[in-house]
Amino acid sequence: MTIVHGICGISGYNYKNDVNTGGRVVNILKIKGLSGFILGLVTLGLSGSLAAAELAGTVIAIKGEVTAVMPSSEARTLAKNAHVFVSDEVRTSPGGYAVIEFVDGARATIRPDSKVVVKEYAFNTADDGALLDLVKGGLRCITGGIAKKRPESYRVKAGVATLGVRGTEFSLRICENDCAEEELRFADGRLAGHGVELLSAK
User: Fold this and answer.
1) How far apart are CA 98 and CA 60, in angstroms?
2) How many CB atoms lie under 10 A from the CB of residue 40?
3) 3-state secondary structure 49-64
4) Phi/psi of residue 171, each to 5°?
5) 1 vs 197: CA distance, rounded Å
6) Cβ atoms 84, 64 nearer than 8 A
7) Phi and psi at residue 143, to the nearest 5°
8) Alpha helices, DSSP H only, in the chain?
9) Which residues pair with residue 170 across a beta bridge?
10) What is the Cβ-side half-sphere exposure of residue 22, based on CA atoms within 13 angstroms?
11) What is the C-alpha to C-alpha distance for residues 144 and 100, in angstroms, rounded to an integer?
12) pLDDT in tens, the chain (202 residues)
């Protein structure tokens, strides 16, 4: 692991220590005449996990607090035009939502108080495919290039069920205590259980 030592030329600071805190460099700057010290986090570009991640999509609309977090990383607050990567878990607050446009043109609206993990997303590759994991709450999707070219490769996981998507538009939610009926409905049949409700499909 390489620790980058910066130089602080601000007047009033007499010295600096660099401390390695699990892959991050924390600058401890002691100030003359003060008993305390200031901790400044130095950000040199993207973190290692984020820099190596594959782009999945971009936030095109947002309301309220929405964050994204990768395994073993701190949560990032999302805003309009922020990027979402493979392995991100997108979390919306009870009053928030986000609309993500994915690299194949698909769009997903993540409902308030929801969690969605982008397990896989690849387009214009030798192995195109998408897998979204709805952990909590709900989402509405309009499919894009992956579902058009390889519909069997566009999948959504919800609870213990993994759903192959037919059509171009669907809404899905995880039932807790707020669903009228906790069963998955299709136009041509019913699949009971799993606490999942397919609200609509076109």
Assistant:
1) 8
2) 14
3) HHHHCCEEEEEEEEEC
4) -125, 140
5) 47
6) no
7) -75, 165
8) 48-52, 145-149
9) 141, 201
10) 4
11) 12
12) 433 333 333 333 333 343 333 443 333 333 333 333 333 333 334 455 566 689 999 999 999 999 999 998 999 999 999 999 999 999 999 999 999 999 999 999 999 999 999 999 999 999 999 999 999 999 999 999 999 999 999 999 988 888 887 778 999 988 766 565 444 443 333 333 345 555 555 5
Instruction: Locate 124 and state its tokens.
Output: 């214009």
- Residue in the structure block whose two tokens are 């009053």: 95
How many other C-beta atoms lie within 10 A of the C-beta of residue 179?
Answer: 15
| Bridge partners (DSSP) listed for residue 55 | 85
Give phi and psi for 30, each to the nearest 5. -90, 135
10 Å CB burial of residue 89 (0-12, 13-18, 19+) is: middle
3-state secondary structure of 131: strand
Place of tokens 């924390």: 26
